[in-house]
Amino acid sequence: MKCPPWQHENQPGGKFCQECSAPRARYSCGARLRKARSSVSGLSGNSEASSPYREKIIAHREANLVEHLTNLAVTTVRESLSVLENRFPAVCPPYFSGSNITGSGLLLAFIMRLNVILAIICLAAPSGAAAFASPLAISEVVKMSGSGARPQDVIERIRASQTSYALRGSDFGKLKAVGVSDEVLDYLQQAFVSDVDLLTRYSLLGPHLGGCSYCYPQPVDLDRMVSGFGIASSDVPGHRRAGLPAGVPDWVSPSLGAAGKQISASDIVDMSKRGVPDSQIIDLLHRSSLDHVIGIGGYHIVREHAVAGVSGSQLARWRSEGVSDAVLDALQARFLAQLVELGHLRYWNWM
């Protein structure tokens, strides 16, 4: 049996056209349709008087098409998520699998996955694929610096490898002692601070980097001159603690505590030079907020990345002036903790 409006072939017995969903009871045969058309046409003089039926048929077809395309899109996205999770398990953890979510959440999961994969593909392009797949060891930075390489060449090598290092405050003085220049020290600190700021944004807005070990600042052990997860540290990549983004080192405190007063980095250095006990200085740091190191240039200035208010060369110089490693480490940890807190406030307002 054919559906008269569009001549679709149908199995007998159905109430609706299998192609356009038009009610077949109204068009049980071509004669009835022609009779109805001629009757209406005779009254109105308009051969298009049956247009209400046509509009309903078109509406049915459009609804069916939308439903079909929606189901097809959902199926395609589910299959794509499955492929991404199987191909890149490190950055596509199964706990966010497409099998557990539907609708807009499914599309968001796919987009987040795709963003991470595209970032990895771009960074691992032929010009720097080997460097990105294997982060540059801190020993290579020291070796290049000691061999007489220009600071800019060392910086370009680090930048090309897409590597940042989770350096404590005292580490900059140790690197300075083995020949790393101030320019490189400043770059290392800025790269670390920028990555902490980026991880803070990711913790609120996504994407989730999972266990991608080369996506995070690399842990460093300068006593052994090694770096990397599983080498300098047994920390699990992507491990997350309450109050801190994944990838921020464990020696950064997740809680700022009761910040009762403002104190500057210069105040801390002066106290150390005057002989104030380290324990007293560190306790004061825990109970205070650092001034003139967060929000450099104003809190309302839009920047592409956070600015390192305490530079690597400054930390190295303070160590050479007698400030203890314990105080410098506490100063760096406090600075990063405040940076994360400010990032949470800033990126929360983006949501």
Provide structural commentary.
- The chain is mainly alpha-helical.
- It has two domains: 1-49, no CATH class; 136-348, no CATH class.
- Helices cover 51% and strands 6% of the residues.
- It contains twelve helices and seven strands.
- The protein has helices at residues 30-44, 51-87, 103-123, 129-133, 138-146, 151-161, 171-177, 182-205, 265-273, 278-286, 312-320, 325-348; strands at 2-3, 8-9, 165-166, 218-221, 226-227, 261-264, 288-291.
- Strands 3-4-5 form a three-stranded mixed β-sheet. Strands 1-2 form a two-stranded antiparallel sheet. It has a two-stranded parallel ribbon with strand order 6-7.
- Strand 4 and strand 5 (226-227) form a beta hairpin.
- Helix 7 (171-177) packs across helix 11.
- The longest helix is centred in the N-terminal third of the chain and has 37 residues, at 51-87.
Summary keywords:
mainly alpha; 3-stranded mixed sheet; 7 strands
Q: Quick recap of the structure?
A:
The protein is mainly α and about 350 residues long.
Set out the fold topology.
Blueprint: E1 2-3, E2 8-9, H1 30-44, H2 51-87, H3 103-123, H4 129-133, H5 138-146, H6 151-161, E3 165-166, H7 171-177, H8 182-205, E4 218-221, E5 226-227, E6 261-264, H9 265-273, H10 278-286, E7 288-291, H11 312-320, H12 325-348
Parallel strand pairs: 3-4, 6-7
Antiparallel strand pairs: 1-2, 4-5
